[in-house]
Amino acid sequence: MSLQGTLDTLSLPDLCELLSGTSKTGALHVRSESGQGVLWFTGGQVCAGEAGGQTGPPPPGAGGDLLDRLHDVCFELFRYTEGSFEFEADRRPSWPAERGVDVSKLLAETDRRMAEWREIIAVIPSVEARPRLVPEPPAAGPITLDAAQWRVVTGIDGRRRVSALIRVLDGGEFTVCKILSSLVQAGLVEIDPADAPQATAGETAGPVVAYTMDGDAEGRPASKAQRNQSPVEEPAIEAEPSEPSAEDDDPLADGLDRGAVVALLTSARTK
């Protein structure tokens, strides 16, 4: 069975409920100008998914990893209001996907995220904005970060956009933006608008993070030479030598006044 159509005639939530109610197995491909993705069904349940930067099998670990992946994928795909879909029956992902999740649970979580997203975008208005650490903490007391917040903080260098941070951290847009929002509300991070000029080495606000993610300002992998130096280190500018290079090689002149060296050599030769 092959089912095709457009999202303006059949919404993605309604389509998922249809596939669930008829216990279908296969791949639901979704394409729009904003992006594309796929949900795999087995017996009417969703067993795998890909969208945006969330590709390949979920990371190994507890069963919650599959739920986290599907929540991120559904949040990405369900925001597409225009585009097309195609369902290919009996298609399976290229990796083992034996466990399924009820469509009703995914729809409920996606609705909850959509409602929370309106509060998040009030703080993070665009994924093209740049987060940066504040120069001074808001209070003199200790600052406590959980593991998820610390992972985001280590990826902030004052130059990466939110979109690049999402790629570098290999996380979902909702999850990363929600954590960023919590850091902004805690007074630890500030958000520069999307059209703000990029900070230079001397202008980057906030302390330098000791553990930064490998990559350039847009999240591309850094070269070996780049990884061996500070990401904000400016190349040293050598001054023009005041004396000819041959004289600079004179070992006697190292640390001594040249006039004194010449006088010393002249005195030695006349003796």
Report on this structure.
This protein is α+β, with helices and mostly antiparallel strands and 271 residues long. It has two domains: 2-117, no CATH class; 130-227, Arc Repressor Mutant, subunit A, CATH 1.10.10. The chain contains nine helices and seven strands; from the N terminus they run βαβββαβαβαααβααα. It has helices at 12-21, 64-77, 103-120, 147-153, 162-169, 173-185, 224-227, 245-248, 258-269; strands at residues 2-6, 26-32, 35-42, 45-51, 84-89, 130-133, 189-192. Strands 1-5-2-3-4 form a five-stranded antiparallel β-sheet, covered by helices on one side. A two-stranded antiparallel sheet has the order 6-7.
List the domain count as a whole number: 2
Strand order of the largest sheet: 1-5-2-3-4
Task: Report the structural category.
Answer: alpha+beta
Please state the average pLDDT score. 76
Helix percentage: 25-40%
Fraction in beta strands: 15-25%
- List segments where confidence is low: pLDDT < 50 over at least 5 consecutive residues: 200-271
Largest sheet: 5 strands, antiparallel
**C-alpha geometry:** elongated
Discrete helix count: 9
Distance between the termini: 108 Å
Annotation, overall tally of beta strands: 7
Order of helices and strands: EHEEEHEHEHHHEHHH
Radius of gyration using CA atoms only: 29 Å
